[in-house]
Amino acid sequence: MAVGGSDRAQQLVIVETGRGRIVVSGACVYGARNILGNNNNGMYVPLGFGVGSIWEQLKTMDRINRAIAGDISRLVILHDFDRWSGLELVKDVNGFRLSRRA
């Protein structure tokens, strides 16, 4: 689904699994803070760069939050390097890390 983000159009993927809905975000958000807010206060934090509309960013963050029913564990933030650092390394192929949750 194309949505607003740091550029004029971003993509997020909603996946229905046997364990429930998972959302994979592209450049719509760069970290949990964008969705959870500063100090986990629930106020979205828009990205501070890019050419896209901040209003569209906020609407996209709201769409993501509704899709995951507020459960941040159901959101895979592709650009959040902190999230990936804690995952178990399965294999490294020329610098491309294949990881899994422990």
Compile the SSE list and pairings.
Blueprint: E1 2-3, E2 10-17, E3 20-25, H1 32-36, H2 54-67, E4 75-77, H3 81-85, E5 88-93, E6 96-100
Parallel strand pairs: 3-4
Antiparallel strand pairs: 1-2, 2-3, 5-6
Features:
two-stranded antiparallel ribbon; 102 residues; alpha+beta; 3 helices
Short description:
This protein is of the alpha+beta class and 102 residues long. It contains 3 helices and 6 strands; from the N terminus they run E-E-E-H-H-E-H-E-E.
Molecular structure report:
The structure is a single chain. With 102 residues, the protein is α+β, with helices and mostly antiparallel strands. The chain has one domain (2-100). It has three helices and six strands, in the order βββααβαββ. The strands form two sheets. It has a four-stranded mixed beta sheet with strand order 1-2-3-4. A two-stranded antiparallel ribbon has the order 5-6. The longest helix is centred in the middle third of the chain and has 14 residues, at 54-67. It is globular, with a radius of gyration of 14 Å. The termini are far apart.
Q: Helical region count?
A: 3
What is the C-alpha radius of gyration, as a whole number of Å?
14 Å
- Strand proportion: 25-35%
Distance between the termini: 29 Å
Oligomer: single chain
Topology as H/E string? EEEHHEHEE
Helix content: 10-25%
Low-confidence stretches: none
Secondary-structure-based class equals: alpha+beta
Overall body shape: globular
Largest sheet: 4 strands, mixed
Strand order of the largest sheet: 1-2-3-4
Average pLDDT taken over every residue: 83
